[in-house]
């Protein structure tokens, strides 16, 4: 059983690392951003309610997000644990998570502000499988095409520079205070996110394997 939170500001590399860790440890990545974008694309009732929040870089209402997580973690593939990517993001969400379960470890990725903006603006994602690429730091083998499933790569609507800066501001105001919440529980490990993808991954694997011994 392994329940982890991959924490950090927008475009710090949470999704990139969660996908790699999910493969290595065989537990699912639960990315609220991916779940919400899927709901918007399918125009579900949740998607219709949440679209304007995503478009403007604001956080969705806690009650909707907490329900989304409760539904997702109750699925059979979460029996042996999961990686939370993008949740919790407010003190209210963290308190609800505390009522639901006990988290083993929070991996907190730190990256300088301007590098975060560059990572977000150059990001491309697969329309079909949500794999993450970067035009400069992690390009696909064939431009505009997903290495994993061959589908088209697109830029997220909220990755325009102005919206990215808004998301960073929201992070500083509403999400960064959670660092103290996790520190008080003794479950936070800081990860240097400014190095390459493999270097970040190695730090995370070391922290997780320490937990298991
Ligand atoms: P969400 O999708 O969660 O966005 P985010 O937290 O802003 O995080 P990102 O997906 O932007 O970045 P990431 O850290 O996963 O980085 P990535 O690996 O892609 O949320 C979107 C929206 O949904 C929110 O604004 C909000 O509206 C709503 N929402 C979601 N969760 C919510 C919640 N709990 N409550 C309320 N609302 C919620 O990497 C970024 C780029 O950098 C990629 O191109 C990648 O290839 C590259 N890269 C990654 N690592 C490295 C590295 N080490 N070196 C070089 N390049 C790298």
Largest sheet: 5 strands, parallel
Cα-atom radius of gyration: 16 Å
| Strand order in space, largest sheet | 2-3-1-4-8
**Estimated share of beta-strand residues:** 15-25%
Count the strands? 8
Mean of pLDDT: 96
Bound molecules: BIS(adenosine)-5'-pentaphosphate
Low-confidence runs: none
Q: Please identify the structural class as seen in this structure.
A: alpha/beta
Q: Write down the overall geometry.
A: globular
- Our count of helices gives 9
Secondary-structure element sequence?
A: EHEHHHEHEHEEEHHEH
Write up what this structure looks like.
- The chain has 213 residues and is an alpha/beta fold.
- It is built from nine helices and eight strands.
- The strands form two sheets. The protein has a five-stranded parallel β-sheet, with helices on both faces. A three-stranded antiparallel β-sheet has the order 6-5-7.
- A hairpin with a 5-residue loop joins β5 (123-126) and β6 (132-134).
- The mean pLDDT is 96.
- The structure holds BIS(adenosine)-5'-pentaphosphate (AP5).
- BIS(adenosine)-5'-pentaphosphate is lined by residues 8, 10-16, 32-33, 36, 53-54, 57-60, 65, 86-87, 89, 93, 119-120, 122-123, 132-134, 137-138, 158, 167, 193, 196-197, 200.
